[in-house]
C-alpha cells in the first residue's frame, strides 16, 4: 500500500494535520494523482543537488502533462482547469529554483510519515496532550466568537454615528434658517415654537453624542480585555506549539485563525478611529456647554492608538523558524557560510500594506552572548512583505539567501572554543520594520527562537541536542544565557521528544517498551516517574563504560536507520531498543531459529541480530552476530544479509539459522519485499556473469563450534560466490567445506 493510501485511511483529526501543509506550493491534487511516482523519487537527495532537482522537476511536469491528456479524454473540465493552473505554477515558480520544490515535496512526505507514525501510537505523551487539551480548543472558539461580536458592535456604532451626523445636519439647517430671519420675525410665536424644537433637538444631540461615545468606549474596552487575556494566551500557545513542532512534535496550526482575529480587531480599531474623527468633525461644526466630545474623545483616541500599537507589535511573528534547506529536520542549527531560510508574517492582513513594509534582518542585535564569537548576515537581508508569495495570501516575507559569517575577533583570529561550548552558545536572528498607516507610524521588532551556530557539520548532533533541550525546557523565546545553568528536564517529556525524533526523521516513533529501555539506559532505573534528568547526563557525560554520550549513541542509530534500514524500521520489524538480558528472556521459549534485531549498545551506529537455538541435550543457547555498521551495510543491504546469512557448525554444512522474526513471523514474509533480488538457490558457473568469470555475490558466513555457546567472531564473515558454494557441495564433503572456510 502506498504511503498516500495509508494517509487517506487516517482519522479526521490526522487528516486535518495533513491538510495544513498542502497548499499552492505543492497542490494536493498532484500528490493524489501522482502518488506512486512521487513516492518512488529521491526528493531528499534532489533537495541538495540542483541538477537532479531540475531533472525531477522536468519529469514532474511531464507526469502532469500525461495526467492532463488523460483527463482531457474524459472531458473532466474542473480537473483540466486545475492541472493547467498547476502546470503553469510549477514552470513559473520553480524553473529558476528547482531545489525549492524538492525541499517542499521532501518535507511533505516526511510530515506524512510523522503523522502516520503518530496515528499508529496508542497513547499520547504528556506534551502532546497539553497542546491539544479541551480548554485550549474552547478558548479558541471563544476568541473567534468575541472578535466577531466586537466587529458587529463597531459596525452598529457606525450606524449610530451616521444617525448623529444626519440629526446634526437637520439641526444646523433649522438653526441657520432662524438665524437668517429679520429681527422682527424672530419674535413671532412660530419662531419661539421653532426654538423649543431646536432645544429639544440639541438635547437629543447631546444624548446621542454621549451614547455614541459610550458605545465606542465599550468596544474599546472589549478589545482591550480580549487582547490582554485570551488573544495574548492564544498567541503564546501558538508560539509554544511552534517550539514543540520545531523539535519533531505535532504540526502547529492556528496561525490563519489568529490572522483572522488580528485583522478583524485591527479593522475594528481603525473603524473606531474613523468614528472618533467623524465626532471631531461634528465638534468643529457644533459645540455647546457640557459637550462630551472634547472631554472624552482625546482619551478614547489615545487608547485606540495604544491598542493599535500593541496589536501591530504582537502581530509581527516568525512563521517559519531559521532552517538550512539541506537539513529540514534540524531547524535553528545554522552553519557558517551556508544559506538558510526564514519566514515572517504580519497577522494584520490589510491590502494597504502590500509591498509597503520593508523588513531588515540582523543577528545578535544589542544582545550579549555567552562567548566572544560574533556574526554578520550576508546575502539579501532587506525585503518587502507582500501577499503574492504565500499560497494563502498572507502578508509575509521569506528570506531565502541569508548566510551567517563569523567575524574575526579583535585579536585577529576567529573564536576557538571547545565543541560543547560552541554548540551551547545561543544566538538570535532579529527582524525590524516600520508600519506607516492612516497617520500612525509603528516600529515593529521580533526575533527568531535561539539558534546555534556551527562551523563544521560534525557539530550538528550536539547543536541539535541543545535546540531540543532549550525548546523542551522553556517557553522563554530569548533566554540566550540558558546554558549557563541549564535546568533538568522531566524524563517522561524527554522520552516523548525522543520518540518524535524517530517519527519525524525516520517515519516511525518508539513504543513504550523501546522508551522504557532508553529510560533505563539513562537512569539505571526501571521506574522513572517524575525523574528529572540533567543536561550533562543527556549530552555531556559518557555512558558507563563507554567512550560516548547517550545522545551521540542515539543520533548514530538515527543515522543508521535513515541511510541503511529505513524500510525495515518503518514496517516495525526492528525491535532495536532491547537489552541483552531482555532479549534472552524474549527468545528463550521461542521456536529454534527465532531471531530479533537490536541496536548495539557498545558500537556506535551498529545493528545486530540474535537467534535462539537448542542443543542436543535440550538446553537453549543464544547466538549474536557482531554488529553491522554503516561500512558493511553500504556493501550489502541488511535484508539481503538476513536472507543469505549462513553459519557452519562443526561437522555440518552451512545453513541459515534465521527462520522466524520474533515473535513468530516467517523471515521471508517479513523481509521478502525488501530483498534486492529474489534468492537464487545456488547458481552454476554457466548460469551467467561476465564471460570467463563465475558470477559472485557476498554471502555472510559464520563458524560456530559445538562446544561453545558464544558466537564465533563475526570478523570471519566471508564473501562467497553462490557458484563456488555449489561446486563445493558437489565435490567436497561437509568436513572439507568447513576446513575451506575456516
UniProtKB/TrEMBL annotation:
<dbReference type="Pfam" id="PF01017">
    <property type="entry name" value="STAT_alpha"/>
</dbReference>
<feature type="domain" description="SH2">
    <location>
        <begin position="569"/>
        <end position="671"/>
    </location>
</feature>
<keyword id="KW-0013">ADP-ribosylation</keyword>
<dbReference type="Pfam" id="PF00017">
    <property type="entry name" value="SH2"/>
</dbReference>
<dbReference type="Pfam" id="PF02864">
    <property type="entry name" value="STAT_bind"/>
</dbReference>
<dbReference type="Pfam" id="PF21354">
    <property type="entry name" value="STAT_linker"/>
</dbReference>
<dbReference type="GO" id="GO:0000981">
    <property type="term" value="F:DNA-binding transcription factor activity, RNA polymerase II-specific"/>
</dbReference>
<dbReference type="InterPro" id="IPR001217">
    <property type="entry name" value="STAT"/>
</dbReference>
<keyword id="KW-0727">SH2 domain</keyword>
<dbReference type="GO" id="GO:0003677">
    <property type="term" value="F:DNA binding"/>
</dbReference>
<dbReference type="GO" id="GO:0005737">
    <property type="term" value="C:cytoplasm"/>
</dbReference>
<dbReference type="InterPro" id="IPR013800">
    <property type="entry name" value="STAT_TF_alpha"/>
</dbReference>
<dbReference type="InterPro" id="IPR012345">
    <property type="entry name" value="STAT_TF_DNA-bd_N"/>
</dbReference>
<dbReference type="InterPro" id="IPR046991">
    <property type="entry name" value="STAT4_CC"/>
</dbReference>
<dbReference type="InterPro" id="IPR013799">
    <property type="entry name" value="STAT_TF_prot_interaction"/>
</dbReference>
<keyword id="KW-0963">Cytoplasm</keyword>
<dbReference type="InterPro" id="IPR048988">
    <property type="entry name" value="STAT_linker"/>
</dbReference>
<keyword id="KW-0804">Transcription</keyword>
<keyword id="KW-0007">Acetylation</keyword>
<dbReference type="Pfam" id="PF02865">
    <property type="entry name" value="STAT_int"/>
</dbReference>
<dbReference type="InterPro" id="IPR008967">
    <property type="entry name" value="p53-like_TF_DNA-bd_sf"/>
</dbReference>
<keyword id="KW-0488">Methylation</keyword>
<dbReference type="GO" id="GO:0051093">
    <property type="term" value="P:negative regulation of developmental process"/>
</dbReference>
<comment type="similarity">
    <text>Belongs to the transcription factor STAT family.</text>
</comment>
<dbReference type="InterPro" id="IPR036535">
    <property type="entry name" value="STAT_N_sf"/>
</dbReference>
<keyword id="KW-0238">DNA-binding</keyword>
<keyword id="KW-0597">Phosphoprotein</keyword>
<keyword id="KW-1017">Isopeptide bond</keyword>
<keyword id="KW-0539">Nucleus</keyword>
<dbReference type="InterPro" id="IPR029839">
    <property type="entry name" value="STAT4_DBD"/>
</dbReference>
<dbReference type="GO" id="GO:0060333">
    <property type="term" value="P:type II interferon-mediated signaling pathway"/>
</dbReference>
<dbReference type="InterPro" id="IPR015988">
    <property type="entry name" value="STAT_TF_CC"/>
</dbReference>
<dbReference type="GO" id="GO:0007259">
    <property type="term" value="P:cell surface receptor signaling pathway via JAK-STAT"/>
</dbReference>
<dbReference type="GO" id="GO:0060337">
    <property type="term" value="P:type I interferon-mediated signaling pathway"/>
</dbReference>
<keyword id="KW-0832">Ubl conjugation</keyword>
<dbReference type="InterPro" id="IPR000980">
    <property type="entry name" value="SH2"/>
</dbReference>
<dbReference type="InterPro" id="IPR013801">
    <property type="entry name" value="STAT_TF_DNA-bd"/>
</dbReference>
<dbReference type="InterPro" id="IPR036860">
    <property type="entry name" value="SH2_dom_sf"/>
</dbReference>
<keyword id="KW-0010">Activator</keyword>
<protein>
    <recommendedName>
        <fullName>Signal transducer and activator of transcription</fullName>
    </recommendedName>
</protein>
<dbReference type="GO" id="GO:0042981">
    <property type="term" value="P:regulation of apoptotic process"/>
</dbReference>
<dbReference type="GO" id="GO:0005654">
    <property type="term" value="C:nucleoplasm"/>
</dbReference>
Amino acid at each position: 500500500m502506498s504511503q498516500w493510501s495509508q494517509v487517506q485511511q487516517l482519522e479526521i483529526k490526522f487528516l486535518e494535520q495533513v491538510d495544513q501543509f498542502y497548499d499552492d506550493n505543492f497542490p494536493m491534487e498532484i500528490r493524489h494523482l501522482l502518488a506512486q511516482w512521487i513516492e518512488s523519487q529521491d526528493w531528499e537527495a534532489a533537495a541538495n543537488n540542483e541538477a537532479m532537482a531540475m531533472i525531477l522537476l522536468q519529469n514532474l511536469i511531464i507526469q502532469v502533462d500525461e495526467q492532463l491528456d488523460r483527463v482531457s479524454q474524459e472531458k473532466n473540465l474542473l480537473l483540466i482547469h486545475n492541472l493547467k493552473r498547476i502546470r503553469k505554477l510549477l514552470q513559473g515558480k520553480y524553473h529558476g529554483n528547482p531545489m525549492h520544490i524538492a525541499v517542499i515535496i521532501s518535507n511533505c512526505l516526511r510530515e506524512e510519515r510523522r503523522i502516520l507514525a503518530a496515528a499508529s501510537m496508542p497513547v499520547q505523551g504528556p506534551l502532546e496532550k497539553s497542546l491539544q487539551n479541551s480548554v485550549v480548543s474552547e478558548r479558541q472558539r471563544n476568541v473567534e466568537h468575541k472578535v466577531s461580536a466586537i466587529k458587529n458592535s463597531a459596525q452598529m456604532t457606525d450606524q449610530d454615528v451616521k444617525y448623529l451626523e444626519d440629526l446634526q445636519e437637520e439641526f444646523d439647517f433649522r438653526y441657520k434658517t432662524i438665524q437668517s430671519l429679520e429681527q422682527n420675525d424672530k419674535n413671532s410665536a412660530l419662531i419661539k415654537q421653532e426654538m423649543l424644537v431646536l432645544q429639544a433637538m440639541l438635547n437629543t444631540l447631546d444624548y446621542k453624542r454621549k451614547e455614541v461615545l459610550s458605545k465606542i468606549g465599550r468596544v474599546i474596552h472589549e478589545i482591550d480585555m480580549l487582547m490582554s487575556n485570551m488573544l495574548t494566551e492564544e498567541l503564546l500557545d501558538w508560539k509554544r506549539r511552534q517550539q514543540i513542532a520545531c523539535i519533531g512534535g505535532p504540526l502547529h496550526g492556528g496561525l490563519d485563525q489568529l490572522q483572522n482575529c488580528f485583522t478583524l480587531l485591527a479593522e475594528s480599531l481603525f473603524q473606531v478611529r474613523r468614528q472618533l474623527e467623524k465626532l471631531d468633525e461634528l465638534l468643529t461644526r457644533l459645540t455647546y456647554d457640557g459637550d462630551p466630545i472634547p472631554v472624552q474623545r482625546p482619551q478614547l483616541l489615545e487608547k485606540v492608538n495604544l491598542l493599535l500599537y500593541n496589536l501591530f507589535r504582537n502581530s509581527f511573528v516568525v512563521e517559519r523558524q531559521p532552517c538550512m534547506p539541506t537539513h529540514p529536520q534540524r531547524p535553528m542549527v545554522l552553519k557558517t557560510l551556508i544559506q538558510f531560510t526564514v519566514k515572517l508574517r504580519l497577522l494584520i492582513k490589510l491590502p494597504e500594506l502590500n509591498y509597503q513594509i520593508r523588513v531588515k534582518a540582523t543577528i545578535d542585535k544589542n544582545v550579549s552572548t555567552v562567548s566572544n564569537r560574533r556574526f554578520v548576515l550576508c546575502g539579501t537581508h532587506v525585503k518587502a512583505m507582500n501577499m503574492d508569495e504565500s499560497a494563502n495570501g498572507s502578508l509575509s516575507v521569506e528570506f531565502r539567501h541569508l548566510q551567517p559569517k563569523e567575524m574575526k575577533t579583535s585579536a585577529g583570529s576567529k573564536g576557538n572554543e571547545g565543541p560543547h561550548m560552541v554548540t551551547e552558545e545561543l544566538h538570535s536572528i532579529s527582524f525590524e520594520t516600520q508600519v506607516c498607516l492612516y497617520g500612525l507610524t509603528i516600529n515593529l521588532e521580533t526575533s527568531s527562537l535561539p539558534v546555534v551556530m556551527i562551523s563544521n557539520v560534525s557539530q550538528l548532533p550536539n547543536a541539535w541536542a541543545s535546540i531540543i533541550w532549550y525548546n523542551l525546557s522553556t517557553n522563554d523565546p530569548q533566554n540566550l544565557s540558558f546554558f549557563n545553568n541549564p535546568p533538568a528536564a522531566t524524563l517522561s517529556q524527554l522520552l516523548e521528544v525522543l520518540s518524535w525524533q524517530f517519527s519525524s526523521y525516520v517515519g516511525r516513533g518508539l513504543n513504550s517498551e523501546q522508551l522504557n529501555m532508553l529510560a533505563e539506559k539513562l537512569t539505571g532505573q526501571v521506574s522513572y516517574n517524575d525523574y528529572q534528568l540533567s543536561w550533562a547526563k543527556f549530552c555531556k557525560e559518557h555512558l558507563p563504560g563507554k567512550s560516548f554520550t547517550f545522545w551521540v549513541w542515539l543520533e548514530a542509530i538515527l543515522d543508521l536507520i535513515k541511510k541503511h534500514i529505513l524500510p525495515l524500521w518503518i514496517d516495525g520489524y526492528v525491535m532495536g531498543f532491547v537489552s541483552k538480558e531482555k532479549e534472552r528472556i524474549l527468545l528463550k521459549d521461542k521456536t529454534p531459529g527465532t531471531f530479533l534485531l537490536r541496536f548495539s549498545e557498545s558500537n556506535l551506529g551498529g545493528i545486530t541480530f540474535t537467534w535462539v537455538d537448542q542443543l542436543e541435550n535440550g538446553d537453549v543457547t543464544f547466538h549474536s552476530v557482531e554488529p553491522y555498521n554503516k561500512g558493511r551495510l553500504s556493501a550489502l543491504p541488511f535484508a539481503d544479509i538476513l536472507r543469505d546469512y549462513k553459519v557452519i557448525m562443526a561437522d555440518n554444512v552451512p545453513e541459515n539459522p534465521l527462520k522466524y522474526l520474533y515473535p513468530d513471523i516467517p523471515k521471508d514474509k517479513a523481509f521478502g519485499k525488501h530483498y534486492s533480488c529474489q534468492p537464487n538457490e545456488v547458481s552454476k558457473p554457466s548460469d551467467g556473469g561476465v564471460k570467463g568469470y563465475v558470477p559472485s555475490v557476498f554471502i555472510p558466513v559464520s563458524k560456530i563450534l559445538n562446544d561453545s555457546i558464544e558466537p564465533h567472531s563475526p570478523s570471519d564473515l566471508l564473501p562467497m560466490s553462490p557458484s563456488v558454494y555449489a561446486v563445493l557441495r558437489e565435490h567436497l564433503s561437509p568436513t572439507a567445506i568447513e576446513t575451506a572456510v575456516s
